[in-house]
Write a structure and sequence with these properties.
about 130 residues; single chain; alpha+beta; about 25% helix
Length: about 130
C-alpha cells in the first residue's frame, strides 16, 4: 500500500495547493468524484476541473489526511481533517470525515465520501451546508 498511500497523499497536497493538473495526473481518465459542495458526482478529469473551479470560487476547503487503511474490499479508507472556510475566512466546517478511494493500476479511479456502513449523501455534504 506504500505506493497507493503516496499517490493519495500527493492528491491531497495538490488539492490543497489548488494544483488541479497535479491532482488530475494521479487519476484515471474516467475517474468518479463526489461533488461535496453541490451533491452528486462528476466523471472524468474535465468535469472534476470544472467542479473544483466552481467550488474554489465559493469556498476555501483544506483537507489533511490523518489516517489511512485498506478495507477488506481493497478500497483505501482515509480519515481526513476537513476545514472549510468562506472566501471571507469564516469557518463553515471544521471536523473529520472519511474518504474511500478505489485504485486502478496505481491511479485514483473513484473517491466517495464516507466509509463502510455510512449512508451516501445525495446532496451537499455537511461541510458545505452553510452556502452563501
Amino acid at each position: 500500500m506504500a505506493d497507493t498511500k503516496s499517490v493519495i497523499e500527493q492528491a491531497y497536497t495538490a488539492f490543497n495547493a489548488r494544483d488541479i493538473d497535479g491532482a488530475l495526473t494521479l487519476m484515471t481518465e474516467d475517474v468518479s468524484w463526489p461533488k461535496a459542495s453541490e451533491g452528486g458526482t462528476v466523471v472524468g478529469k474535465d468535469e472534476i476541473r470544472a467542479y473544483w473551479t466552481r467550488q474554489w470560487s465559493e469556498f476555501d476547503p483544506h483537507v489533511t489526511p490523518t489516517a489511512m487503511s485498506e478495507g477488506d474490499d481493497g478500497k483505501v479508507l482515509v480519515r481526513v481533517h476537513q476545514l472549510v472556510k468562506s472566501l471571507a475566512e469564516d469557518v463553515l466546517w471544521d471536523g473529520e470525515v472519511v474518504h474511500t478511494f478505489t485504485m486502478v493500476d496505481g491511479l485514483i479511479a473513484a473517491m466517495e465520501i464516507g466509509g463502510p456502513g455510512d449512508e451516501a449523501e445525495a446532496g451537499p455534504s455537511a461541510a458545505f451546508a452553510h452556502r452563501g
